[in-house]
Amino acid sequence: MLKGIDPILNADVLYALRAMGHGDDLIIADTNFPSDSVARDTVLGEVLRIDRRAAEVVKAVLSLYPIDTFVEDAAARMEVVDEPDTILPVMQEVQAEVSAASGPTMMSIERFAFYDRAKQAYAVIQTGERRFYGCFALRKGVVPPDEV
């Protein structure tokens, strides 16, 4: 146990978050997402797991992980098939966590385009989220220097 670090963030996830650089994508996926097969194409090459709801995982990750402020697609969600404007409760919950971390409004990405983006990501965290369309992409930003 460490002070100041959310205990749901296991050692493998902490390693990946620390290793990522500015502009790298992190995918936070629900239990139905093909996380293992997609993760094989990522930089990390293996799936990470946190068996919690998507919003809990996003909140824990964003307690340490800055969201990119230089791009429009820094936060994204997989859109509902044939309903790109539908915002499901799981998406609202995750957006609330992104907003609480001063992040942008999430853009929507068509399902297969989301799979393509996920394969280019640094890492995939598969959550215990069982609600459909609980899949999100967060692009890492920068940590500014300490004020002197």
Number of domains: 1
Query: What's the helix-strand series?
Result: HEHEHEHEHEE
Bin the strand percentage: 15-25%
Write the CATH fold name: RbsD-like fold
Name the overall outline: globular
> What does the main sheet amount to?
6 strands, mixed
Briefly, what CATH class? Alpha Beta
> Which stretches are poorly predicted, pLDDT < 50 over at least 5 residues?
none
Supply the CATH superfamily name: RbsD-like domain
Task: Tell me what the structure shows.
With 148 residues, this protein is of the alpha/beta class. It has one domain (11-139): RbsD-like domain (RbsD-like fold, 3-Layer(aba) Sandwich), CATH 3.40.1650. The chain is 30% helix and 16% strand. The protein is built from five helices and six strands, in the order H-E-H-E-H-E-H-E-H-E-E. A six-stranded mixed sheet has the order 2-5-1-6-3-4. The termini are far apart. The mean pLDDT is 96.
Short characterization:
The protein has helices at 11-19, 35-39, 54-62, 89-100, 111-119; strands spanning 25-29, 48-50, 75-78, 107-109, 123-127, 136-139. By secondary structure, it is α/β, with parallel strands linked by helices.
Blueprint (SSEs and pairs):
Blueprint: H1 11-19, E1 25-29, H2 35-39, E2 48-50, H3 54-62, E3 75-78, H4 89-100, E4 107-109, H5 111-119, E5 123-127, E6 136-139
Parallel strand pairs: 1-5, 2-5, 3-4
Antiparallel strand pairs: 1-6, 3-6
Helix pairs in contact: 3-4
